[in-house]
Specification:
alpha/beta, Rossmann fold, pyruvate-formate lyase- activating enzyme, OB fold (Dihydrolipoamide Acetyltransferase, E2P), 3 domains, five-stranded mixed β-barrel, binds S-adenosyl-L-homocysteine, binds iron/sulfur cluster, binds FE3-S4 cluster
Length: 442
């Protein structure tokens, strides 16, 4: 019997889906190198944090973790920082947390095995930091996806948009896409392994440009959705400037493309959008919303909003609230503006106090709660197809997700026994702001 690998690692992931998926690739790579994943810091020889620096709070998390476990360094454990904080802070991390031996940004993960060998050979500080212009992407056949039914595929890395508030263009490098053929071959492999849902990822997924010039983004969406065995395709995040009508047409003509679009608006004010350097106006944004609403399918729309951007007046914030009434979003991620290193917005004066940002966020969220309840009410008595995602034992309910990306909890007859990852039909019988409740249809 082969003995268990002796080297162990622990990996904690912060941040967006891109980071979650990168971690799946890192885990696969480490396992291939003979490491075994463990569930606690204490049991690990190698402790890795895949970090996020989108807001200050996210960035602080890794430094808290490193401080918490500092004393374990004496036991010979190796600490590594991966991801966006690693790329942003670089070698400064060694000063702030001297027990860290490895600092590696996302474009350098292909070098992780070599870097770990250097550490094993006694090198105390190893870095993998690329400049913004790197063409490197990290693709591996060893990706260890954590869910056997739905999985991510990164189709475009990086960001060229440089919104005034955002670190991503600095932490993730320039925009670079994979060929559509390689995306399709990964999708087919996933289908062969039994995956039925694929989520295509990119900081701006719809800025995708096939380096081989073979397929547009919407053609790639349709092609992935038509891979035999694939029943659902999602894509996130779409940038409004690059959002074409062809995406709506693809959703209308390919049923397995989910009827949900995440289209971050950030602000409803023309002036604030300009100051944010978002590259579209309120009117252009609403034009895209109108295309989505004119679709034959009922496409759900979600968004991201930043409140308290420097100089945002009460009247400009009210324009965001008014835009919410026009669009009637199915979901909003609201954030308080957080000043970030290297970003142009740091130069702006007219700082809004945290208490005021907190107030605006609460107003936004309360308004959205009401809108969402109304949006969810529309589904009452509807029969929706859900993918079964889990079981809530306390409530004796199954957790399902609709194509529109809504959570639909449901009960089923005892002998029905829904399977995780299976698809079935549920009639919605009650609605709440954040979910629907229903009964399985037999
Ligand atoms: N590329 C995507 C967003 C990626 S970041 C897009 O352009 O839409 C996810 C969200 O974090 C952003 O949509 C924005 O709402 C929020 N965000 C980014 N930087 C921020 C900052 N400095 N302060 C607060 N929220 C921020
Ligand atoms: Fe950040 Fe803007 Fe790029 Fe989105 S488009 S990742 S918000 S810079
Ligand atoms: Fe955070 Fe980096 Fe994603 S900053 S949101 S982990 S791209």
């Amino acid at each position: 019997m082969p003995s268990e690998p002796s080297k162990t690692f622990y990996l904690e992931t912060f941040g967006c889906q891109m980071n979650v998926h990168d971690s799946e690739k890192v885990i696969g790579t480490l396992k291939q190198q003979g490491y075994r994943q463990v569930e606690t810091v204490e049991a690990a020889d190698l402790i890795l944090y895949n970090t996020c620096s989108i807001r200050d709070k996210a960035e602080q998390k890794v430094f808290h973790r490193l401080a918490d476990y500092k004393k374990l360094r004496a036991q010979g454990k190796t600490f590594g920082v991966l991801g966006c904080v690693a790329q942003q802070e670089g070698e400064k991390i060694f000063e702030r947390a001297p027990h860290v031996s490895l600092v590696c940004g996302s474009a350098s993960y292909r070098n992780l095995p070599a870097m770990l060998i250097q550490i094993g050979a006694g090198k105390s500080r190893v870095t993998g930091l690329d400049d913004r212009e790197t063409d490197e992407c990290f693709e591996t056949e060893f990706t260890a996806r954590s869910n056997p039914h739905r999985g991510y595929i990164t189709i475009i890395e990086g960001c060229d948009k440089f919104c005034a508030y955002c670190v991503v263009p600095f932490t993730r490098g320039k925009e670079r896409s994979r060929t559509s053929d390689s995306v399709l071959s990964e999708a087919r492999q996933m289908a062969d392994l039994g995956y039925t849902e694929i989520q295509l990822l990119g900081q701006n997924v719809n800025s995708y440009k096939d380096p081989a010039g073979k397929r547009s983004f919407s053609e790639l969406l349709a092609a992935v959705a038509e891979v035999p065995g694939i029943r659902r395709v999602r894509f996130t995040t779409s940038h409004p400037r690059d959002f074409g009508r062809d995406i709506v047409e693809a959703i209308d003509s390919v049923p397995s493309l989910c009827n949900h679009v995440h289209l971050p608006v950030q602000s409803g004010s023309r002036r604030v959008l300009e100051a944010m350097q978002r590259l579209y106006t309120r009117e252009q944004y609403l034009e895209r919303i109108a295309w989505i609403k004119a679709a034959k399918r009922d496409i759900s729309i979600t968004t991201d909003v930043i409140v308290g951007f420097p100089g945002e007046t009460e009247a400009e914030f009210a324009e965001t609230l008014a835009l919410m009434d026009v669009v009637e979003y199915d979901g909003i991620f609201g954030f308080k503006y957080s000043p970030r290193p290297n970003t142009p917005a740091l130069q702006l004066e007219d700082i809004i106090p945290d208490s005021e940002k907190t107030r605006r966020l609460a107003v936004l969220q309360e308004k959205q709660r009401q809108i969402q309840k109304r949006r969810n009410d529309r589904h009452l008595n509807e029969i929706c197809e859900v993918m079964v995602e889990g079981r809530n034992e306390t409530r004796k309910q199954w957790v399902g997700r609709t194509s529109q990306n809504k959570v639909l909890n449901f009960s089923a007859a005892q002998d029905a026994n829904p399977e995780l990852g299976g698809y079935l039909f549920v009639r919605a019988t009650a609605s709440f702001p954040n979910s629907l409740l229903g009964e399985m249809v037999v």
